[in-house]
Amino acid sequence: MRTPTNFYTSQSETLLGKLADSHTSIGEYRETFHLIGTDLAEILNKELPNYGPTLLACSSEDADWLAEGVLEGLSIKNTALAVFWNDRIYPNPENKAIVASPIVKSYIEDIEDCRNLIIVKSIIFTSCVVKTQLTRLIEKITPDHIFIVSPVMFKGAEENLRNEFPSSISSKFQFIYLVTDDEQNEQGEVVPGIGGMVYQRLGLGDNTNKNKYIPSLIRKKLGL
Predict the structure, then answer these.
(1) Which of 136, 170, 175, 184 would bridge 165 by S-S if both were Cys, CB 3.0 to 4.6 A apart?
(2) How far from chain centre, in Å, is Cα 77?
(3) What residues contact 212, with CB distance under 8 A and at least 6 apart?
(4) What's the DSSP call for residue 75?
(5) DSSP, res 13
């Protein structure tokens, strides 16, 4: 069952419906994530303290669409960027809910005295990817506020993520998401979720191929 949050609107319903629809083309799927990103940015602008250096972190497959939409809509400009390429490993093949997501490479821009950390993820299911990225980042920065932003959250993921960190870190968390889903299909995917594996729906191929993809967001920054 899908449960809307206070951030959910009629626009959210339309966009999330396009993600869940298996007939949505790759181009429209990408554009839908970009539009959801700008909507989430509007929410962030109301919640985000309007001061201090800000870092936005995301997975490589989310960079060019969801994260770019968030960056475009943020009122705080010159936001630094961190992008992570995560592997997707099932330690127990019979339980698709148990996933390990080691970082295989990363792009992290320098930032001094980071006050706001925004982690953007297309869907938060087991929370392992967010946990891995956040663990890497808090080794380098000590933000005052940590915003965890996603269109869809699986039931229990918020609590699970809080339990992974000491209160000195988890007390800084603020979650912004549009809906909570609580069902899975036989493939272990959240239903309706985002309509399957995001990198496949985005046209990036399987887990191996999506980790070869260099987001255009990074290419532009590097002048490639």
Answers:
(1) 170
(2) 19
(3) none
(4) S
(5) H
CA angle 78, 84, 88 (to 5 degrees): 155
Six-digit token pair at 184? 């899975």
For position 161, what pLDDT does the model report? Answer: 96
Contacts of residue 211, defined as CB under 8 A and 6 or more positions apart, other chains included, come to 60, 85, 86, 87, 104, 105
Q: In the structure encoding, which two tokens stand for residue 224, read together? A: 């490639």
Name beta bridge partners: 3.
180
HEC readout, 118-139: EEECCEECCCHHHHHHHHHHCC
Rg, Å, the chain Cα set = 16
CB atoms closer than 10 angstroms to residue 108: 16
Q: What pLDDT is recorded for position 197?
A: 92
Residue recorded with tokens 């309509």: 195
Could you give the CA distance from residue 53 to residue 88 in angstroms, rounded to a whole number? 31
d(CA 64, CA 47): 24
Helix then strand then coil, in percent of the chain rounded to 5, is 35, 25, 40
- Read off the tokens for 164: 């992974």
Two tokens, residue 76: 């705080």
